[in-house]
Design brief:
By secondary structure, this protein is α/β, with parallel strands linked by helices. The chain has helices spanning about 20-35, 65, 110-125, 155-175, 190-195, 225-230, 230-240, 245-255, 265-275, 280-295, 300-315, 320-330, 335-340; strands at about 1-5, 40-45, 55-60, 75-80, 85-90, 90-95, 130-135, 180-185, 185-190, 200-205, 210, 245, 260. A six-stranded mixed β-sheet has the order 5-6-7-8-10-13, with helices on both faces. It has a four-stranded mixed β-sheet with strand order 1-4-3-2, covered by helices on one side. A hairpin with a 6-residue loop joins β2 and β3 (about 55-60).
C-alpha cells in the first residue's frame, strides 16, 4: 500500500458548522484523486490528528494486472494541513492563500481548491464580490517548484501548465462577479499571474510585482498581461530588464487600481468591496462581461493563445535549458527553497 500525503485545501471557515458544505468540498478533492490515481473510493479513517483524514482508494485494476494474477493496488491519501481558506463578510467572499511559511507558494492542490472555492462563490447568489488575499508578509512567491518532476517532458509540461495555470487563470479573469486582489509584499511569478486576472488590484505601499522568468530563460508567464496592464513600452522595459515593479510605479502605469499603507490595506479593500457589493449585481455582471468582451475584440484573448505557445516553446530552447542548468549549478533547489521560506524572494 502506498501512502500519498496531500493537503486538505478547503475546509469550512473557523467557527462554521455547515458540515454538509465541508463534506462537499472534501468530496470535490476526493473525486480529483480518484481520477488522478485511476481509483475508486473504498474507506476513510482519521490519520494523525483531528484535522487529518485518510482516504483508502482502490485502483481500478487493469487487464495487465488481471493477466498476471495481481491484486488491486490500495492507495492511502492523507488529507492534512489547510493551505486555502474561505471567509464570508456579508456579500463579500474572501479566498485566502494560507501557506505563509512557504510564502504562499502555489501547489496543484491549492489551485484545485481555488477553482472549487470560485465555483462555490459563483453558485451562491448572496456573494457579490470575491477578494483574493493572502496571510503572512508576502502575497505569493509563485508556483511551488519543489512539487515538480525534474524529468518532466515538454509535452507533459505543456499539458500541466495549460490545465493548472493557463486555464485556471483565465477562469479567474472570466469569473462573472467582480474580483479584487489584495496584495502585500512580494507578488511574484504565479502570484503575479493570478493577481493580474482580478478586476481590481489593491496593493500595500511595500508591495512589488516581479516576473523573474525571463532571467531564467522563460518566455514570461503563461499569460502575458504586461502589455495590457503597463502599455507596450513599459512592458518591454520591465520584461527586458527583469526588474521589480514597485507598487507606486504599478499605480502610475495603471497596473493596479489603488495603493494603501500596509496597515490600512484590509480596510481599504473592505471599503471598495463594500461599495461594489452595494451596486445592482446583475448590472455589474453584465458590465464586466461587456468590458471583458471589449478587451477580447481588441485582441487580448488571441494574444494570450499565441503567447502561451511561445512560452511553451521557450522551455525547450537550448538557452532555456542552459540557464536552468547554470542556476542549479550555482545553487541547489534545496538552498533556493530555504531562502524563499526565509523571505528572500528575489
Amino acid at each position: 500500500m502506498q501512502t500519498i500525503r496531500r493537503p486538505r485545501e478547503l475546509v469550512a471557515p473557523p467557527g462554521a458548522t455547515n458540515r454538509k458544505k465541508t463534506l462537499e468540498r472534501r468530496g470535490s478533492l476526493l473525486s480529483y484523486w480518484c481520477a488522478e490515481l485511476n481509483a475508486d473510493y473504498r474507506n476513510v479513517e482519521h490519520a494523525s490528528g483531528p484535522d487529518e483524514i485518510a482516504w483508502f482508494l482502490r485502483c481500478r485494476i487493469c487487464a495487465a494486472c488481471v493477466g498476471r494474477g495481481r491484486e488491486p493496488f490500495i492507495f492511502r491519501v492523507v488529507i492534512g494541513a489547510m493551505t486555502i481558506s474561505v471567509e464570508r463578510h456579508g456579500a463579500v467572499f474572501h479566498l485566502v492563500l494560507n501557506r505563509p511559511e512557504k510564502r504562499n507558494a502555489l501547489t496543484r492542490d491549492m489551485l484545485l481548491a481555488i477553482q472549487s472555492a470560485l465555483q462555490d462563490a459563483e453558485r451562491d447568489n448572496d456573494v457579490r464580490v470575491v477578494v483574493l488575499r493572502a496571510e503572512g508578509p508576502d502575497f505569493c512567491a509563485g508556483f511551488d517548484l519543489s512539487r515538480l518532476r525534474s524529468e518532466e517532458l515538454p509535452e507533459e509540461r505543456m499539458v500541466r501548465e495549460e490545465e493548472e495555470l493557463y486555464s485556471k487563470a483565465l477562469a479567474l479573469r472570466n469569473f462573472p462577479k467582480p474580483t479584487i486582489a489584495a496584495v502585500q509584499g512580494g507578488c511574484i511569478a504565479g502570484g503575479l499571474l493570478f493577481s493580474q486576472m482580478c478586476d481590481l488590484i489593491v496593493a500595500s505601499d511595500d508591495a512589488y510585482f516581479y516576473n523573474p522568468l525571463v532571467r531564467m530563460g522563460g518566455v514570461g508567464l503563461e499569460i502575458l498581461m504586461e502589455p495590457w496592464d503597463l502599455g507596450i513600452r513599459q512592458a518591454k522595459r520591465y520584461l527586458f530588464t527583469g526588474e521589480r515593479i514597485p507598487a507606486a510605479v504599478a499605480l502610475k502605469f495603471g497596473m493596479i487600481t489603488d495603493l494603501a499603507p500596509r496597515q490600512d490595506l484590509a480596510a481599504v479593500v473592505a471599503d471598495i468591496a463594500g461599495k461594489i457589493a452595494a451596486m445592482p449585481p446583475t448590472t455589474i455582471r453584465l458590465l464586466k462581461k461587456s468590458i471583458n468582451r471589449t478587451q477580447d475584440h481588441m485582441g487580448m484573448r488571441a494574444s494570450f493563445d499565441y503567447h502561451f505557445a511561445m512560452h511553451e516553446f521557450g522551455h525547450t530552447t537550448q538557452e532555456s535549458q542552459r540557464l536552468l542548468h547554470e542556476a542549479r549549478e550555482r545553487q541547489s533547489l534545496k538552498e533556493y527553497f530555504a531562502e524563499r521560506d526565509k523571505g528572500d524572494l528575489a
